[in-house]
Specification:
about 60% helix, ammonia transport, transmembrane helix, two-stranded antiparallel sheet, NH4_transpt_AmtB-like_dom, two-stranded antiparallel ribbon, Ammonium/urea_transptr, transport, 4 strands, mainly alpha
Length: about 500
């Protein structure tokens, strides 16, 4: 009897293997892990580089390390308890039940978000539970990097003065009592998810929350030293652009990975993301040229960010022409609030938001959420949203109500973050001072970490006034930034 012909498919690729169950779609799994990696790269090294470069030289190490530390801390908290609070079984209409995401029985089974089944009023199923075609491990990691970047964005409001030990306590507390609430409410099957509030990829969950929480934390921490508030030039503009570039390109995973599959909607999301970001950057730069006669590089980065933030809640839900309109508005409205309103509103003047996170993320995120309620296209909505017949205001029908839903969802995120962040800051301050000591504020990185970004007066030497001369704040940095958007 002749031997059977050899199987032409290598063993590693045969579908009958235990590692390749019937429900696994290798393309979806590959794209989800790539997307997660791209989002991770936005933080490490993207925002680490951007923060370390956009601040004054004496805060380069501290600013970069706040981002670096937050990323690591979130990863551990996420898998130990926070993932299931965001995407697990329902505990409250806005919160999931805490629990670990560490065991192999949980992580290698098919991904599923148990609270996402959408029902009609009569109890019939409208949209089945979300069950992506890859393992829970991919879902846990993808959502983890979103949680991490939210804390890092928030850090931009308190750079240059927050006590690092207080930051170490703040990260797990804010993740637990603020981020998980927004994530479950809007993504994990909470009340805003089922009500039909649109947040495709985090305009509310990530950007509005980080911007509002950042402004709130900045209020409780207090301002930078008077010298730093008066003069805060970036120490490396070119390296700042490198960090910004990683942020921009990484947004392909940020928005392209959120349909939980490599489908036609994810392609729309990636294209719209770049259209809106490019438009916003150009508009911001044009406004700087028109009103301040100089094209600010920092301003261009701010415009890029506001464009990326604005398109995020509607990336896969709007058409390309709408992405251009959103880019025009995201390049102009946050510019107006940052350059005009901020300088005239006493409250904003008193709160020292170091990198203007309130404008670039809270204002742009809320703007994007409302514009999504206006421009969300019905066919694209049907590809992603659990509530059938969803549409934006320009398409008639229930579209007008959608705008009201977007405003109400934004109001919930704003209110929760103001209250939760305030309580967290007050509690931490009872144990650990939120603000650095005056000596640390004067010296910077060397006093806080015993390390400096650049050894400008010797090979590894610590600055010593008795050896290196009396180099004051004003003559240590002889070049003053004249960029139009230099508001830090």
């Amino acid at each position: 009897m002749a031997a059977p012909p050899p199987n032409p498919v290598p063993v590693a690729y045969r579908g009958v293997l235990p590692s390749v169950p019937d429900w696994l779609n290798k393309g979806d799994n590959a794209w989800q892990m790539i997307s997660a990696t791209l989002v991770g790269l936005q933080s490490v090294p993207g925002l680490v580089i951007l923060y370390g470069s956009i601040v004054k030289k004496k805060w380069a190490v501290n600013s970069a390390f706040m981002a670096f530390y937050a990323f690591a801390a979130v990863v551990i908290c996420w898998v130990v308890w926070a993932y299931k609070m965001s995407f697990g079984d329902k505990l409250l209409p806005f919160w999931g039940k805490a629990g670990p995401a560490l065991g192999q029985k949980f992580l290698i089974k098919q991904a599923a978000l148990p609270a996402t089944t959408q029902f009609y009023d009569n109890g019939d199923v409208e949209t089945a539970m979300a069950t992506p075609l890859y393992p829970m491990a991919s879902m846990v990691w993808f959502q983890c990097v979103f949680a991490a970047i939210t804390l890092i964005l928030l850090a931009g409001s308190v750079l240059g003065r927050m006590n690092f030990k207080a930051w170490m306590a703040f990260v797990p507390l804010w993740l637990t009592f603020s981020y998980t609430v927004g994530a479950f409410s809007l993504w994990g099957g909470g009340f805003l998810f089922h009500w039909g509030v649109m947040d495709y990829s985090g305009g509310y969950v990530i950007h509005l929350s980080s911007g509002i929480a950042g402004l709130t934390a900045a209020f409780w921490v207090g301002p930078r030293s008077s010298n730093d508030r008066e003069r805060f030039p970036p120490n490396n503009v070119l390296l700042m652009l490198a960090g910004a570039g990683l942020l921009w390109m990484g947004w392909a995973g940020f928005n392209g990975g959120d349909p939980y599959t490599a489908n036609i909607d994810s392609s729309m999301a990636v294209l719209n993301t770049n259209i809106c970001a490019a438009t916003s950057l150009l508009v911001w730069t044009w406004l700087d040229v028109i009103f301040f006669k100089k094209p600010s590089v920092i301003g261009a980065v701010q415009g890029m960010i506001t464009g990326l933030v604005c398109i995020t809640p509607g990336a896969g839900l709007v058409q390309g022409w709408a992405a251009i309109i959103m880019g025009i508005l995201s390049g102009s409205i946050p510019w107006f609030t940052m350059m005009i309103v901020h300088k005239r509103w006493t409250l904003l003047q008193k709160i020292d938001d170091t990198l203007g996170v309130f404008h670039t993320h809270a204002v742009a995120g809320l703007l994007g959420g409302v514009l999504t309620g206006l421009f969300a296209e019905p066919e694209l909505c049907a590809l992603f949203l659990p509530v059938t017949n969803s549409r934006g205001g320009v398409y008639g029908g229930s579209g007008g109500i959608q705008i009201l839903k977007q405003l109400a969802g934004g109001a919930f995120i704003i209110g929760w973050n103001v209250v939760a962040t305030s309580i967290i800051c007050v509690v931490i301050n009872l144990v650990i001072p939120l603000r650095m000591s005056e000596e640390q504020l004067l010296i910077g990185d060397d006093a806080v970490h015993g390390e400096e970004a650049y050894a400008l007066w010797g090979d590894g030497e610590t600055y010593d006034v008795t050896r290196h001369g009396d180099i004051t704040e004003h003559n240590m940095e002889t070049r003053t930034s004249t960029g139009a958007t230099q508001v830090m």
